[in-house]
């Protein structure tokens, strides 16, 4: 009986984590043009960086209001929200309301996500 429970748990974990494991390859973001070399991030932040497609609504002083696609890696549904920009955020172009972009989000020491790069699509 214990073997059955162990196998059932292993099967459940394998199935439930598969979408997260392969999510990065399905989001369609081509971030090969992003130069991450001068971003002051530690290895954990780079490892945990998340990319998503979004539309810029506005960019203000240290904040961007965007409408982004679902981000399954961190459990976020599609939504419109204000996201802070990191102090060293890379703006790879001039952006205006309505522009389609790829965002690179990193989780800060405070546990909150912020935009570390914006690249045009």
Automatic annotation (TrEMBL):
Tagged with keyword Kinase: no
Protein name: Cu(I)/Ag(I) efflux system protein CusF
Stretch forming the signal peptide: 1-23
Record organism: Roseibium alexandrii (strain DSM 17067 / NCIMB 14079 / DFL-11)
InterPro entries cross-referenced by the UniProt entry: CusF_Ec (IPR021647), CusF_sf (IPR042230)
Keyword set, alphabetical order: Signal
Any single Pfam family the record assigns to this protein: CusF_Ec
Lineage: Bacteria, Pseudomonadati, Pseudomonadota, Alphaproteobacteria, Hyphomicrobiales
